[in-house]
Amino acid sequence: VQLVESGGGLVQPGGSLRLSCAASGFPKENYVLGWFRQAPGKAREGLAAINRGGGMTIYADSVDERFTISFDNAKNTVDLQMNSLKPEDTAVYYCAADPDAVLTLRVQAYDYWGQGTQVTVSS
Question: Is residue 65 classed as helix, strand or coil in its secondary structure?
Fold first, then answer.
């Protein structure tokens, strides 16, 4: 299983970014992909997850409807559209996969992780 994130960078407060995670090597069709982030000195937190088989999604309350997770079947990527970004959204963002297909935001449930991509929200 390989997960490769892209799309991070520097954005001004109120701006938008779209993160993408290329997923490959899964032995079965039904699995869960999630987006997480970790700010300096803080624990890694789950933001959103999607079930690859059925398309169901879950979001953390902290996302506050500003983020949207989706799966691009043509590209085989899981994307995270982030709008109305705030300085407190600054963190390293990770894509992760749970091959047991449990739709959860618990970090411990995910077996595979990407290398992370930095998102910095600053003026």
Answer: coil
